[in-house]
Amino acid sequence: MNYNISKNFNNVYIISAPSGAGKTSLVKQLCNDWHFIKPSISHTTRKRRLGEKNGEDYFFVAKKEFIRQASENFFLEHQKVYGNFYGTSLKSINSIIDSGCDVILEINYEGMLEVKKIISDAITIYILPPDIETLENRLVNRGDDKNEVLKRRVHSSKKELNYAQFADYTIINDEFDIALWDLKRIILKEKMCSNYLEKWISSIVPK
Fold first, then answer.
1. How many structural domains comprise the chain?
2. Within a domain: residue 171?
3. Any residues with CB less than 8 A from the CB of 107 and at least 6 apart, and which?
4. Domain for residue 3, yes or no?
5. With a cut of 70, which residues of the chain have pLDDT below it?
6. Short-list 57, 40, 35, CA closest to 101
7. In a domain, 4, yes or no
8. What is the predicted pLDDT for the residue at 100?
9. Predicted local distance difference test score (pLDDT) of residue 131
10. Domain coverage including residue 194
11. Which pLDDT score is estimated for 156?
12. Count of beta carbons in the 10 Å neighbourhood of residue 59
């Protein structure tokens, strides 16, 4: 499958983590602090949680509509997680890149690996909890899921910790402010990497 990814000097970041590791809070604060990086809003068939807004947290769509979009290659990647579908639209990524901003994807490990195959220079970052007990407590304290779903999340999250080895960077989210600073340091490092500078310089130097 060929995907028409916008070509620009902006980076694509992929943030992944098991449920309860805190990736959503980190991404939200990062994008609030730094306006040169924008989140790609995923599509999902799951029900909207209290306080969530359509088009800001997710694009909430019916299952039939999601399946239709997937069949038309609307998504760069899509997964079924805990009985619900999630997908990253190519249109969303290209729109952010074309606006001159970096784009950040908040997706699960399967989506991370899938997008990395397509966008080889995407930067992958995996968020880890300090320990299993903290992870379980965070999931319980969220109170978003029914007991059976919560049990599945806890079991799956433990397995997903192994996928940190496939990411370019890992961050342990023990103290939020420290984890946020670690995330920002990675972003700054990648913005100033030689490859990025070479592309930028070549675009402004007359041939």
1. 1
2. yes
3. 14, 15, 16, 42, 77, 79, 86, 88, 115
4. no
5. 1-9, 142-150, 194-207
6. 35
7. no
8. 87
9. 84
10. 12-204
11. 73
12. 17
- Token pair in block for residue 35: 């306006």
Cβ proximity of 64 and 26 under 8 Å: no
pLDDT in tens, 46-81: 999 888 999 988 999 999 999 999 999 999 999 998
Q: From CA 135, how far away is CA 127, in angstroms rounded? A: 11
Q: What is the pLDDT of residue 10?
A: 83
Task: Report d(CA 70, CA 90) in Å as an integer.
Answer: 11
Radius of gyration of the chain (CA): 17
- Single pTM value for the model: 0.83
Q: What is the residue whose two structure tokens read 């342990």?
A: 172
Burial (CB count <10 Å: 0-12, 13-18, 19+), residue 39: buried
Q: In what order do the strands lie in the sheet with 59-60?
A: 59-60, 43-44, 84-89, 75-81
Distances (CA, A) of 136 to 25, 158, 164, 174, 182: 17, 9, 18, 14, 23
* Phi, psi at 92, each rounded to 5°: -65, -45
Q: Does residue 104 contact residue 40 with C-beta atoms inside 8 Å? A: yes
Q: How much is the pLDDT for 152?
A: 72
CA distance 119 to 5: 8
Element counts in the chain: helices (H) and strands (E) = 8, 9
**The CATH number of the domain where 158 resides is what?**
3.40.50.300
**Dist CA 75 CA 91 (whole Å):** 8
Domain presence at residue 28: yes
